[in-house]
Amino acid sequence: MTDNESKTPTNFIKQIIEEDRKNGKNDGCVQTRFPPEPNGYLHIGHAKAICLNFGIAEETKGLCNLRFDDTNPEKEEQEYVDSIKEDVRWLGFDWNDREYFASDYFRQLYEYAVQLIRDGRAYVCDLNAEEIREYRGTLTEPGRESPYRDRSVEENLDLFERMGSGEFPDGSRTLRAKIDMTSGNINMRDPVVYRIQRSSHHRTGDEWCIYPMYDYAHCASDSIEKITHSLCTLEFEDHRPLYDWFLDQLGIFHSQQIEFARLNLSYTVLSKRKLLRLVQEGHVPGWDDPRMPTLSGIRRRGVPPEAVREFCDRIGVAKADSTVDLSLLEFCVRDYLNKHALRVMAVLRPLKVVITNYPERQTEELEAVNNPEDPDAGKRKVPFSRELYIERDDFMEDPPKKFFRLAPGREVRLRYAYFITCTDVIKDENGEISALHCTYDPATRGGDSPDGRKVKATLHWVSAEHAVDGEVRLYENLFTGEDPDDAPAEKDFLSNLNPDSLQVLRSCRLEPSLKGAEAGTRYQFERLGYFCVDPDSSHENPVFNRTVTLRDTWAKIQKGKK
Ligand code: ATP
Ligand code: MG
Question: Is the beta carbon of 38 within 6 A of some atom in ligand 1?
């Protein structure tokens, strides 16, 4: 969010806005809005819209409103309103006191509708939903006019008022715009403006039994708020003539709708309807499950907001749909955490090591660097003692050629500590390796050998006696295919769920500095990846979510392209 006014605008929307400002349109002012419907939690796709709308306002010294598009009482809840506010704030944006609800405008919207009726631009129609659909025609066939289309203004005013006062059953009548049943654009074929629906609204309760339709409410709300540029996703392109029609007929402030491509992400579904199914059908425990692409999910996973914003910057804003590779998001996460996360040692699948020539009951404190990328991050002490844990994967009794880590008779470095050599492999009654016996070289304290002796591997470790027990949750993509919607006939995206998306490791051993780590804190576990403390943690036993591994697949993809 750094391109200031003197630079060339970085996307076509900014170019349009820049041009409008130069021409003094709207007195050179810019007012945008982010208009979520509170019918689910926000996802990373919404982050793109948030960064775009709030970002443009920031760059143009304009304002961005937060507006809840709450015109569909059946699906909307206060829980969603609260989560949306939390998520927008988390991303680092502020709408100050400009928090609006389409439902705040219900009275005004009603009056606008009356105006449309008076002007002969809207009529009450007695066709039911099914019939309206039938009359509407298809892409290739024009629609037919409703038999109720030519009611008098007086009759329409009377019927609309009675619709509003609750005289008619749900769905029995609608208010429709009188436009053109033969229009090539189906949206213009006398769209419904108001419907009768007796459901309690999360804010207006039972005050209304008629509710405005989205297309009507949205443009009018934009106008009421004097939104100069109303940015929305591509699927609304065909709705733009209707957007313009309503505002032109009403003769009120005319916001300009501009469409951009929505974010699609590989291995990910970005639709609240589908995400809701994942939650409701129990495929994940909640909206904030760390595998979910919701902002609350990725926050819990450990993704920093800075990385999401960087990601949104890098993907840009275009007019054509495309799918972004998930590895780009991971790259942004790694890039940020590499500079900002403290490094610690944690052993996820512990294998005990006894240093046979190290004095019993002795402990020493070794110095470890908190983050080599950040000189200000300082150093810390890590305890070392005779019994340690290393990663089970870091030892092989009978190693193949390319395995350079610990093996019988081999010497490796323990990070920040000593060189050790494996002398014995201890097995239990089942023949499973239960411990290793090693010797250490006291002259290699700190991890350097005075005689220039080289080792091929450096392992992380934790002192057994000092270790904190913890749980680590490893995540893989929630879906196996790049496009989760690419499912066999008669099946849907759920058939592509990855059965191995979660692996829980319950006997991890963590260095003692991680005791009492606060939920939300992010670390690099040396050699393993980035991890974030989960709210399920207790003071004694932290729980960590793996945010990302250290493998940078994005760089690989870029290299392959060159
Ligand atoms: P969904 O399809 O997930 O249900 P929606 O468009 O119905 O999303 P809204 O609450 O209406 O959800 O969206 C609020 C704003 O966020 C809209 O301006 C919408 O265009 C934008 N938005 C939603 N999904 C994406 C996406 N994947 N990429 C970019 N912008 C999006
Ligand atoms: Mg929507």
Answer: no
Q: Is 34 part of any domain?
A: yes
Place of tokens 């436009």: 179
Number of the ligand 1 atom closest to the C-alpha atom of 48: 29
Q: Which of 264, 290, 306 is the last residue of a domain?
A: 264
Residue 30: per-residue pLDDT: 98
Number of domains in the chain: 2
Q: Determine what percent of the chain is predicted with pLDDT higher than 70.
A: 98
Q: What is the pLDDT of residues 431-456, one digit of tens each?
A: 999 999 999 999 999 999 999 999 99
Q: Which helix (H) or strand (E) holds 125?
A: strand 122-125
Q: List the catalytic residue out of 67, 178, 189, 272.
A: 272
Average pLDDT score, the chain: 96
Q: How many CB atoms lie within 10 A of CB 78?
A: 10
Residue with tokens 């066709």: 127
Compute, in angstroms, the gap from residue 301 CA to the centroid of ligand 1.
Answer: 22
70 CA to centre of ligand 1 in angstroms: 14
Is the Cβ atom of 272 under 6 angstroms away from ligand 1? yes
The closest-lying atom of ligand 1 relative to the alpha carbon of residue 231 is: 18
Do 364 and 243 lie in one domain? The reply is no
Can you give the pLDDT at residue 519? 97
CATH number of 84's domain: 3.40.50.620
Is 556 tagged catalytic? no
Residue 37 appears among annotated catalytic residues:
yes
Q: Let me know: does 31 contact 62? Beta carbons within 8 Å.
A: yes
Distance 14 CA to ligand 1 centre (A): 20
555, pLDDT greater than 90: no
CATH number at residue 412: 2.40.240.10
Q: Which one-letter amino acid corresponds to residue 504?
A: V
Cα–Cα distance, 410 to 413 (Å, whole number): 10
Q: Is 39 in the pocket of ligand 1 (CB under 6 A)?
A: no
* Residue 528 in contact with ligand 1 by CB distance below 6 A: no
Rounded Cα distance between 409 and 407, Å, is 6
**Nearest-CA residue for atom 2 of ligand 1:** 271
Q: Which two tokens stand for residue 162?
A: 């009675």
Q: Does the predicted TM-score (pTM) go above 0.85?
A: yes
For residue 559, the model assigns a pLDDT of 78
What's the pLDDT at 4?
Answer: 45
561 CA from centroid of ligand 1 (Å):
31
Report the pLDDT value the prediction gives residue 8, as an integer from 0 to 100: 67
CB of residue 48 inside a 6 A radius of ligand 1: yes
pLDDT digits (tens, 9 = 90+) for 520-554: 999 999 999 999 999 999 999 999 999 999 988 88
Domain boundary (231, 264, 297) is at: 264
Question: Three-state secondary structure along 246-297?
Answer: HHHHHCCCCCEEEEECCEEECCCCCCHHHHHHHHHCCCCCCCCCCCCCEHHH
Q: How far apart are CA 122 and CA 177, in angstroms?
A: 4
pLDDT at 560: 77
| 56-69 as b/e: b if 16+ CB within 10 A | bbebbebbbbbbbb
User: How many angstroms separate the CA atoms of 480 and 493, rounded?
Assistant: 10
For residue 102, the enclosing domain spans 3-264
- Distance, in Å, from the CA atom of 323 to the CA atom of 315, rounded to the nearest integer, reads 10
